[in-house]
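Recall from the previous lesson that a structure prediction takes nothing but the amino acid sequence as input. Here we apply that procedure to Phosphoryl Seryl-TRNA(Ser/Sec) Kinase from Fimbriimonas ginsengisoli Gsoil 348. The sequence below is the only information supplied.
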Amino acid sequence: MKPTAVLLCGLPYSGKTALATSLALEGYVIISLNEINRARGLGLHGNSVPGGEWLETHRIANERMREFLAQGRNVVWDDTNYAAWIRDPVFDAALDAGAEPVWVWVDTPIDEIRRRADGRYPTEDLEKLIRDFEKPCCAIRLDGKQPIDVALQPLRRAMGKGVLG
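The prediction returns the following tokens.
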């Protein structure tokens, strides 16, 4: 049986990390681009990550994902993945690594995103992501305003149908 790569997308503060943490309790390994950036000393104290640094962050994340998938481990990719040009290579990398990849869109109302992010995320960066976010065409949609156990129900139904490992 192939390992599963749950690939999260959604705006900052939509609830992606909470969902990833819940999946980690079931044995999924979290690939968090925010954590990679923090370990690299980037994005600290409310500062933006310089645009040129994201290529290296993605390289590190892809390498980790390939390693875990090669070991037969399920992974959850925790990042905004706000545009198709970012999402497509992540999906392809998971597929090339032998996984069953699935996109999960954590859809949270914009007013709730702004409330959660208030004072914790650079406003200009957030507003740019809100403007530029491309809703995925092919993803399991989860309601990021719901409690985690409720929000995960569509994903669990997909898992129960053999879509996920």
